[in-house]
Amino acid sequence: MTDKHQQRMAAKKAVMDAKIAKATEERGILILMKGNGKGKSSSAFGTMARSLGHGKRCAVVQFLKGREETGELKFFRDHPMVDWHVMGDGFTWETQNKEQDIATAQKAWETARPYLSNPAYDLLIFDEMSYMFKYHYLDVEPVVEALQQRPKHQNVIITGRTMATPLQEIADTISSVEDERHAFRLGVKAQAGIEF
Amino acid sequence: MTDKHQQRMAAKKAVMDAKIAKATEERGILILMKGNGKGKSSSAFGTMARSLGHGKRCAVVQFLKGREETGELKFFRDHPMVDWHVMGDGFTWETQNKEQDIATAQKAWETARPYLSNPAYDLLIFDEMSYMFKYHYLDVEPVVEALQQRPKHQNVIITGRTMATPLQEIADTISSVEDERHAFRLGVKAQAGIEF
């Protein structure tokens, strides 16, 4: 019994080792976290914690601002290796003003763009950026171009429900977070530390 | 044009506000992060950063240990509000020893269990725990029972590819992270700050 287990696992290890041996290219990647489920932005911030643990320099640009003081803002903003920019005036149904939303989106992109030509930054997070394309507040082409010209080692994570096709075409990793159940629909109130 | 936009957004806001008004229950939730895509554990750690930003006390038990020094371990382990336990001897195909894996799983559960009766902890993360059930290293029933009896305000996040059905039955939020693309398959080597 144990021998069979050992043999199966040894075979699995050989397969895994061969796969790992084939992945040799060293470069930064573009990660898209999309889908309607909970966990896209928190995944980006968890990856940032991971990068900070290895001494990497990071920048966050939040394209939509929902609440004044999120837990992630409070937690990360004073870290010496983190730049954190909260842009946006809230969700589009809060402002109800398209011109204002477009101006804010443009300002957020002007904040984000210089990081894509700054090799001092190892990880960039453009949080909720995908809505800018969905609502046509930003053109995707200049963003694709800037992403393609960024420093080779730089990693970028973009989050948001629906992703513009040109971003999906150039992405290295795409995870789609599917909502199978959400406490909110069970009547549980959004709470500090979990939803914001 | 602008008026139409304003009207549409005002209607959307009314729908959102009504939904928010209906979610009034205040309690901790059980979140499952499952699926084969990248971002499950990092989502849990991002949520932990969010909780820490609000001054919440957290504990992490990692049921599988892949590498010696992950970025998340380095980043969080010295935080005064975090307990961090790395259990496990690596993946099953690394140990190739079923008895050892079972003993390690049991020890990890004995480490995790007391937190579920300790109201001082607001957020618990049982990282990669789902493998323990998949490989029959742990029974799921005692885990379900302990989860159901935990302090009312306590949030728990369990991560792992496949989730045991009894856990899905009692979960409040389930996100399934689907792998649409992964840099690893494009030949990009796993890198510090992104994969570990």
From TrEMBL, chains A, B:
InterPro entries, alphabetically? CblAdoTrfase_CobA, P-loop_NTPase
**MF (Gene Ontology):** ATP binding; corrinoid adenosyltransferase activity
Taxonomic superkingdom? Bacteria
So what does this thing catalyse?
A: 2 cob(II)yrinate a,c diamide + reduced [electron-transfer flavoprotein] + 2 ATP = 2 adenosylcob(III)yrinate a,c-diamide + 2 triphosphate + oxidized [electron-transfer flavoprotein] + 3 H(+); 2 cob(II)alamin + reduced [electron-transfer flavoprotein] + 2 ATP = 2 adenosylcob(III)alamin + 2 triphosphate + oxidized [electron-transfer flavoprotein] + 3 H(+)
Q: Name one Pfam family in it.
A: CobA_CobO_BtuR
What this chain does, per the entry, is described as: Required for both de novo synthesis of the corrin ring for the assimilation of exogenous corrinoids. Participates in the adenosylation of a variety of incomplete and complete corrinoids.
Name of this chain's protein: Corrinoid adenosyltransferase
User: Which lineage do the record's taxonomy fields give for this organism?
Assistant: Bacteria, Pseudomonadati, Pseudomonadota, Gammaproteobacteria, Pseudomonadales
User: What is this protein's gene name?
Assistant: cobO
